[in-house]
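User: Continuing from earlier, I have the next pair ready.

Assistant: Great, send them over.

User: Here they are, in order.

Assistant: Folding the first of the pair now:
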Amino acid sequence: MSELAYEQRAPRRVTGLGAGDLWLLFLANLAVVAGLWYQGGALNGVGDLGTALISAGRLTGLVGTYLALVQILLVARLPWLERLAGFDTLAQWHRRNGKLVLWLLLAHTVLITAGYTLTGRTSLWHEISKLLSSYDDMITATIGMGLLIVVVVTSLVIVRRRLPYEVWHAVHLMTYAAMALAFAHQLSNGSEFSADPLAKDYWRVLYLVTLGAIVAFRLLVPLGQTLWHGMRIEAVVPEGDGVVSLHISGRRLDRLGARSGQFFLWRFLTGDGWWQAHPFSLSAPPARDRLRVTVKSLGDYTARAALLRPGTRVIAEGPFGTLTEAVRTRRRVLLVAGGVGITPLRALFEDLPAAPGELTLVYRAIDAPDVVFRAELDALAARRGAAVHYVLGDHRDPGNQALLGPTHLRGLVPDVRGRDVYVCGPPAMTALAEDSLRQLRVPRRHIHVERFAW
């Protein structure tokens, strides 16, 4: 295929018509939220600092609650949204929006409390006690706020890195409890709803749509796929120190629409693993009745992958991810993998259409024992006329700081500026590779990145 033909197949980005419709829907609902606040008499009677604070507190509470519902929809596994933005981008939006939600709801709490304190001319502690004891559902809303604070704090990078994935995942489930606890407080205490049934119905619809999306795409669709495809573990194959491949069989797995470079969220129906969903990439091109994923031991759950037995039932949500052949825009391709990030790129290395000399893989690892699939990669490279470069060494050791730097990368792949580049690996490695590619003046539209930072 010619270079021009690839250029005409530029990937759909989050700046197209679909994205415009999405932003329009988001802003339209935000405008309705503000309009209902205004219609509810938000500015009536605002004549001093206390009443102004109360009015501002109500607005921040409404906007914060709306964004909290958006927060849930971002991880509701909506297929059209995932195809539009990609799982990695949605995860970034989710993290940023979560912090904004917390700040808005904290502002709501502070502004309302301060406003009532000023207008009532009482002490702060007296007003707090009055709010908790005299207003319906205030205690449950306070508990919900506490849960939300815990969720956001555990999402901070400095905290997240210290927590096992299983603990982080369990804590994040409290987001649903926090929203449920806040719902009754919103309808029973909001002046915007006391005299306006339309406002109450509007918010009920928002909550029901969010709940419906969660039930449909986080529960019913995965359950339906499980029953229809009958996925089970067929074999567990060691690939290296702490690394195993899970061979999964099932009926008509091609109907899942999975592509090389994508991943699923997997649940293995064992006594202690059924409730946890973990993202594992396909490490081989999907077949009609078989899939392969490869798991590295990075925590309690992944360490138990080696103990899974053939015949174990499997639930899979997905496929997810945009790191596929569909985003390719050039004839020549460079794959840059780091650590367990080799898994989706190993599938692409086998599956991407390419003539001899057009496909190159750079595989970054600390030491030779950390290299996974070496025999497979070497065999694929020989069969396809592709190149593989194994880049070994610890960046902390003298002389290794330049590994994957612009000079080193250009030495490995002299024509890197004329290639599409797929990058997958840990955050530090992908950030280094992206920076090197930018210094080498590879256009941003030709760099496709997925970070393994779950």
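And the other member of the pair:
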Amino acid sequence: MNEGLSALQQRLQHKFLNEKLLTQAVTHRSFSADHNERLEFLGDSVLGLVVADLLYERLSSLPEGDLSRVRANLVRQETLHQLALDLGLPEVLRLGEGEARSGGQQRPSILADAVEAIIGAVYLDTGFLAAQALVRRLYEAVEINPEMEAIGKDPKTELQEWLQGKKMNLPLYRVVGTQGAAHKQTFDVQCEIIELSFSERGIGGSRRAGEQAAAAAMLQTIKAKAKQ
């Protein structure tokens, strides 16, 4: 393992038993077929659970809807991007030549995805408690307070809250296609609400952006149906 990743382990306060997991976590799809997207998928779920647990503990007086909004703000791209910068991830990302030339090391979506991938890698390396401890360390310097509930809702959060209000299951998101070169890919994402037999799609420059676009399209459909 190179010096950069060794130093990253120190900043993470986690010594990997399987160092290949950390290498994969900082590898973008433009660099290798052994990239970090599966780890990102796993880390996204772990992150959501740990942050929800953290908020349940710290903001015990907030109702469910407000907790959802605060969580959305804590796991959004902007917050994860700042965490990535604090960890020094731009210096250790493994990018293809084209992606590197186009400024991929500083691209918020790539850095945010790498944070989630690292969380997923820690989970696979030594289990949930280690991943939970990592997330809690990462968020030690992030201000968490009830006032965060006033921040506007993103489409995914708004859709989730609407479904929860109707006692329905959460929507299913899946990538149905990608287009473009590795360093300029767009993600075509499907959002499906099985109980309503609704399905909408959205396109974005990252999986996360594609999900938001698909959720926004689904909200438009729901509002249009409500007017009929």
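Worth noting for the second one:
The longest strand covers residues 172-179. The two ends are 60 Å apart (CA to CA).
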